[in-house]
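For reproducibility, we list the full input for the NAP complex.
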Amino acid sequence: MPDLLQIGGITDAMKARLEAAFTIHQLDDFDPEKITHVVTNGHDGVKPELMASLPNLQVISGYGVGYDAVDAPAAAARGIKVTHTPNVLNQEVATSAVLLMLAAYRELLRDDAYVRSGDWEAKGGSALTRSADNQTVGILGLGRIGQAIADKLAPWNPTIVYHTRTKKDVPYKHYDNLTAMAKDCDVLICITPGGPATNKIVNADVMAGLGPKGTLINVSRGSVVDEAAMIDALSSGKLGWAGLDVFEGEPHVPQALRDLPNTVLLPHVGSATHETRAAMGDLTVDNLLQHLKDGTVITAVPECAHL
Ligand code: NAP
Ligand code: 8YV
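The corresponding predicted structure, in tokenized form, follows.
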């Protein structure tokens, strides 16, 4: 059987299917010459030095849609097919973005704590919150998931606007300039890929544009937001609220951010339901098994689509 290198955890269902087709190796026990296939995830990816050390590598199958932790152009240059799991997680990640937005607007965590602490009984009703209805929502990255977020927000009657590098064929206003869009928005939802092109594009100016009544939601990658500038803006009142699923140095989350009451923090669980992770796992394995069968893959990343 061909030799597969496993990077990071896989589900039992993935393991059972992969074991039937590959000899699975862990990072502490493999012969680089023998590895033809790699299974990894969006967080671990494949380190450049590891990829360079695998002369016979043919496929890197990623459990996740974001592949910023794999050097896809370098892989493509060597003829290595990189695959990911687009579309099967759109709805789940969109739900996570909406959940964070609603939790921030309606102070879900504050009011949950108010009931648990006994303050409701001791002090009476808690402070009023903001309505999430009729807001101008700026989507940074109107791709597969960004569009699902726009669709999922429809019952709250938003005005959707967006910033991408290229204008899309959609009925929403496009902004060339992210700071200009932030100035016009109540909420900014980040759902671009990570990587150098989006590194810290949500900077102090963008957050100042959102302003003291603005809400920043990040379900993309921690690298997309300047985290130090965000902590400063949230602490000083220059930015109102943040709902975050991803962080610059995750799983480390700076204490200053954890101490802020105007944040809702999740441990990168945008796609983390049984149902969606099963679908992602199936597609991750399907890509590998199809390659064994006929040399093709199902969902190559754009950089490898021509291979
Ligand atoms: P997609 O369909 O490729 O959409 C990406 C969007 O971002 C496109 O509209 C693209 O438009 C825009 N974009 C790319 N680079 C940009 C830049 N430099 N400036 C502005 N806009 C830019 O990807 P997707 O499937 O929606 O996934 C998006 C990302 O979500 C993933 O890459 C991943 O990082 C993240 N994600 C997070 C979770 C989670 O658990 N929190 C789960 C899944 C995905 P243009 O090319 O026209 O700019
Ligand atoms: C995963 C993600 O949690 O798909 C992505 O890009 O960020 C998440 O769905 C991540 O890839 C780890 O597998």
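Residues 90-265 form a domain with the Rossmann fold fold (CATH 3.40.50.720). The mean pLDDT is 98. Both points were considered when choosing residues for closer inspection.
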